[in-house]
Amino acid sequence: MTSPGRRGLGQFYPVLLRHFGQQHWWPAETRWEVVVGAILTQNTAWTNVEKAILNLRRAGALSAPAMEALAEEELARLIRPSGYYNQKAKKLKAFLRFLRLRHGGSLRRMFRIETQQLRRELLAINGIGEETADSILLYGGGHAIFVVDAYTRRILDRHELISAQAPYGEIQQLFQREIPPQAPVYNEFHALLVQVGKHHCLKAAPQCAGCPLEPFPHRESQGVNDGPQRT
DNA sequence: TGCCAGGCCGGGT
DNA sequence: ACCCGGCATGGC
């Protein structure tokens, strides 16, 4: 009978889907935009990324060749609203160089590489860590790999399914063991977790009331101790 | 006003 | 193998 996860997890998905509906992620027009967005959204609110992408579009720089033609300083200026703009301009340039040298500048060719092999290649690029690599793989290339982000960590920690300090790979494997590897499902599931995270399981306050996952076992506070004693 | 947001890197222990 | 400081903007 294969118990569905230790508790929840597998059961979260249908509940969230029913509550929020399809998310239609990643919010981008093209696969190249997915790559750009994945880098720009590192530790940054998506609304700021939207401003940066709008700047790029208005400058006609929202394609790989056009972006690569820009001076790094000019690219940094355009993506300024997304924060860390000097770092991120460098990262975009690093990805562009990788794409051109290693895959002839073609995302279609790049995404034909086997999942784990391509993942290693992406991680070797300076500025691409695990979450960014997996976002590109899943949302850009349709590879069946689960994306773990801060929301995912917080939600699983809140439900005591795994420690928030657990290594990325452990959390990822938890999902990939429980959920059969289908990209559309991984895509939707992660998008739904972000949706939950935006309204509940906040860093500052729990906000458990009204959460669709409220029926599942969880703790209200996030401290190691149970928060302030109520005496 | 301070805290937060869909991380990652490099240097130090 | 961890831990930390740095990177930066815009919204509430």
Give me the secondary-structure topology.
Elements: H1 12-20, H2 31-40, H3 46-58, H4 64-69, H5 72-78, H6 85-103, H7 107-110, H8 115-123, H9 130-141, H10 150-158, H11 168-178, H12 183-199
Helix pairs in contact: 1-12, 2-3, 2-9, 5-6, 8-9, 10-12
This protein binds a DNA duplex (13 and 12 nucleotides) through helix 3, helix 6, helix 9, helix 10 and helix 12.
Brief rundown of the structure:
This protein is mostly helical and 231 residues long. It is built from twelve helices and no strands. It has two domains: 69 residues, no CATH class; 111 residues, Endonuclease III, domain 1 (Orthogonal Bundle).
Describe the protein.
- This protein is 55% helix and 0% strand.
- With 231 residues, the protein is an all-alpha fold.
- The chain has two domains: 69 residues, no CATH class; 111 residues, Orthogonal Bundle (Endonuclease III, domain 1).
- The protein binds a DNA duplex (13 and 12 nucleotides) through helix 3, helix 6, helix 9, helix 10 and helix 12.
Search tags:
2 domains; Endonuclease III, domain 1; globular; disordered C terminus; 12 helices; mainly alpha; 55% helix; DNA-binding; 231 residues; 0% strand
CATH fourth-tier homologous superfamily of the largest domain: Hypothetical protein, domain 2
Number of strands: 0
The share of residues in extended strands comes to: under 5%
SSE class: mainly alpha
Radius of gyration: 19 Å
Largest sheet: none
What is the helical fraction, as a range of percent? 40-55%
The average pLDDT is 92
| CATH architecture annotation of the largest domain | Orthogonal Bundle
Q: Could you tell me the CATH topology label of the largest domain.
A: Endonuclease III, domain 1
Order of helices and strands: HHHHHHHHHHHH
User: Unreliable segments (pLDDT under 50, ≥5 consecutive)?
Assistant: 222-231
Treating each run of at least 4 consecutive H or I residues as one helix, how many helices? 12
Q: End-to-end span in angstroms?
A: 44 Å
* Outline type: globular
Total domain count = 2
Q: Assembly state here?
A: single chain
- The CATH class of the largest domain is identified as Mainly Alpha
